[in-house]
Amino acid sequence: MIRWLLVIFLALMLLSWLSPLLR
User: Fold this and answer.
1) Distance in angstroms between the alpha carbons of the first and the last residue of the chain
2) How do residues 2-21 score in pLDDT, each as one tens digit?
3) Which of 1-23 are b and which e, b meaning 16 or more Cβ less than 10 Å from the residue's Cβ?
4) Model-level pTM?
5) Radius of gyration (Cα) for the chain, nearest Å?
6) How many CA atoms lie less than 13 Å away from 23 in the CB half-sphere?
7) H helices within 1-23, ranges in order?
8) For residue 21, how far is the Cα from the chain centroid?
């Protein structure tokens, strides 16, 4: 259960970091 939360959290972190770079 907690592992999934960590995966989702890391995914959101990566998206927040990469979204401005892609633009």
Assistant:
1) 34
2) 999 999 999 999 999 998 88
3) eeeeeeeeeeeeeeeeeeeeeee
4) 0.55
5) 10
6) 5
7) 2-22
8) 14
